[in-house]
Amino acid sequence: MQLGQSAVAAGQDYVQKNLGGLIPVSVMKYHFNVSNSYVVKKIRLLLFPWRHKWSRRVHRTENGQPEWQPPRDDVNSPDLYIPLMALVTYILLAALYSGLQARFHPEILGITASKALAVVLLDFIFVKLGCYFLNIQGGMSNQVLDVLAYDGYKFVGVIMTLIAGLLNVGRTLYSLVFLYSFFATAFFLLRSLRHMVLPDASATAAPVNPAQRSRRITFLFLVAVTQIVYMGILVRV
Prior knowledge:
The protein has eleven helices and two strands; from the N terminus they run H-H-H-E-E-H-H-H-H-H-H-H-H. By secondary structure, the chain is mostly helical. It has one domain. It has a two-stranded antiparallel ribbon with strand order 1-2. Helix 4 crosses helix 5 (107-133), helix 4 (81-100) packs parallel to helix 6 and helix 7 runs antiparallel to helix 8 (171-192). The chain starts with a helix and ends with a helix. The mean pLDDT is 85.
């Protein structure tokens, strides 16, 4: 955990220096405000999302403004700690996988990291373009980091698939693990992104008409279904 905290601190410092002018530091710190119990519960939710209450908790700030509870206090809140740690773990597992197949070379780390970041960026652009064209409103800084967090959760399922491959469980079981990880990730995103794509009437100034709702539901399913493409790319190490 200490190693993870050091990595997060370094990541926060890097993001603060490079994105501090675009995204408030308080917003970035919010996404790293996690606890050990939150991490365990969140990973369990990512792997077994089938029966869960998805409503996010709201609290009032000192000036009376409503605000989402931080991840530490609400397992439904998106965080950047797990995606960051999962990304690092994915890169190391890919290197181990290559080493066991006697094809490791130092460039593997850079290639794997570049591929992973490219997949996250592609997913991010797809979601943001969908939000733009469907006129899905949201606080820019909050929404950017929320989407990045949701994009990064797919690495948990990818890691499970890679571990199955390392254990030599056989092609059939490996495929089943991959399919289960995909369905779990897709279902998680389907339910988690709903509050952003289809907000409650009380949470938005402009009500969503039936035609808009239909298009947004289609978009939501597209985001979920395309995860099989992204995860399929990532498990090829």
